[in-house]
Design brief:
- By secondary structure, the chain is of the alpha+beta class.
- The protein folds into two domains: about 1-70; about 80-190, 3-Layer(aba) Sandwich (Protein Transport Mog1p, Chain A), CATH 3.40.1000.
- About 45% of the residues lie in helices and about 20% in strands.
- It has helices at about 1-20, 25-70, 80-85, 125-130, 175-190; strands at about 90, 95, 100-105, 115, 135-140, 140-145, 155-160, 165-170.
- The chain has an eight-stranded antiparallel beta sheet.
- The two termini are about 40 Å apart.
- The relative contact order is 0.15.
């Protein structure tokens, strides 16, 4: 659609010099009306893409990221080394400095934090995934959803040694955005 608008604008502008050079007075008004008609049509076409990108640009990026990576293959697991020494960057998130049982990832431009717990749980994955109260969504090497109160997004991820937990706050990021992060984390960590 954008190419059409550019083409129409370019064609309209290119007719102005030709009309100005022509010796007949009747050709000039015809050329002048053509550029007027094209810009009237052009704003309608350009306004729609602008509105869509302004209104949901970030959401569209998250959806694109989720679509690009997608969940890992069914039997894939995150390598144990990636749990103790996680990737420094995952998409638009960077690993923060600090110590503790959780690795904190911060979004490069927005106030979003995602926690990747380095404590490996010995519990069975299916039992843990069954505790996800709503919207159990395949992501990475496991699944994501929200807890029963809806106050936390929880993702359980299979690793070589057991299961790790990834958590986020729904007021900061959507479930889809968290699932996209988890997909990218698994891919970046070399899940196989």
């Amino acid at each position: 659609m954008r190419k059409t608008v550019l083409l129409l604008s370019t064609l309209a502008l290119s007719t102005l010099p030709l009309a100005a050079c022509g010796g007949e007075g009747e050709e000039a008004p015809t050329a002048e009306t053509a550029p007027t008609a094209a810009p009237e049509d052009a704003p309608d076409e350009t306004e729609e893409p602008r509105e869509a990108s302004d209104a949901g640009g970030e959401e569209m990026e998250e959806e694109a990221e989720a679509t690009a990576a997608g969940p890992a293959p069914e039997d894939a697991v995150i390598p144990a080394a990636a749990v103790t020494d996680p990737p420094p960057e995952v998409g638009a998130f960077s690993l923060m400095d600090g110590s503790g049982p959780a690795h904190m990832y911060s979004h490069d431009e927005e106030s979003i934090l995602i926690s990747v717990d380095s404590t490996v749980l010995a519990s069975d994955y299916d039992t843990l995934a069954g505790e996800i109260a709503t919207d159990n969504t395949p992501a990475g090497t496991g699944s994501c959803g929200t807890n029963s109160s809806g106050s936390s997004i929880v993702c359980y991820q299979r690793t070589e040694d057991g299961v790790i937990t990834v958590t986020a706050i729904p007021e900061e990021i959507s479930l889809e955005g968290t699932a996209a992060f988890v997909d990218q984390f698994a891919e970046t960590a070399g899940a196989a």
